[in-house]
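Give me the 3D structure for Inosine-uridine preferring nucleoside hydrolase-like.
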Amino acid sequence: KKKLLIDVDTGVDDAQAIMMALASPDVEILGITCTHGNTSLDNSCKNTLRVLDICGRMDIPVFRGCEYSMLDEKREASDFHGKDGLGDSPDPNAPGLDKLQKRKAVQAMIKIVKENPGEVTLVATGPLTNVATGMVLDPYFPKKLKELYIMGGNTESRGNTTSCGEFNFVADPEAAYIVFKRVTCPTYIATWEFSCRNSLPWSFCDKWLAQDTDKARFMKKIYKHTQEVIQSAEYEKETVGKPGFNTCDCYTMAAAINPSVVKASEEVPVSVELNGKYTRGMMVLDYIGLLPNKHKVTILKKFDLEIFKDMLMSALK
Ligand code: BDR
Ligand code: CA
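Predicted structure for Inosine-uridine preferring nucleoside hydrolase-like (317 residues):
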């Protein structure tokens, strides 16, 4: 089984990605680390625990991570994910923060990777603050990773948070910069435009949510707000092509669990702009080899949507 470590800022699509991993017989989840991002760090932790509880998997350790970006700033995306990060449909019986592990996320990440050298696939679906901090704290941590999957960045200077910046990278550009500077393992990126270009029809989403299971009923409840936002006319501006059912974090997770879902990709060194007045947080692709870091990352281009749909269906079974 593939050993997964998952770093999340649990909003709605992070929840979907976690459920996809939980449903896969091919992976073992060694831990989930939480970061700031879509919502406050407390909410991100609570939402993660709530998802595990719904899936009957409270045995998976959850760790509290960084509350602010490297520059001590915080963004959130409550317009999209709801004020609580999960569509504002609270569950009074959801587990509390006392269910978190005592160890902090960054230390846990380093420990888990140290105990499983060369075996851990790290899937990061939020701002990269925890991952970058781990890389700075322990230079051997990135060297001992098997592979890294990231949801973030953009390839066509198309933003969803700033004019040309994607949320996870804009929420902590320094962290993303550090990760690309230090990473040496195979690294795969599902960018904003990639997920837009591989979106699914809403008729599939209806079928997905209509499954007669507690997981599907839970998802229908927490996804309602986000679905309304995506289907609004205003949202068309953010997306590439016609907006469909687009669950960004699930693309990254699906590729990590089952690499055969990736039908086309390209390899190129990347970095992140830190200084631009308009372009801070934008991903930079270095096709002509001028960046100091020559390590190529794999940018996902095309998905097998039939395999992807099966994986999504299984997540709510
Ligand atoms: C990313 O930002 C967050 O809002 C989503 O959870 C996803 O990780 C998309 O830009
Ligand atoms: Ca996310």
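Residues 214-230 form the longest helix (17 residues). Let me know if you want a second pass.
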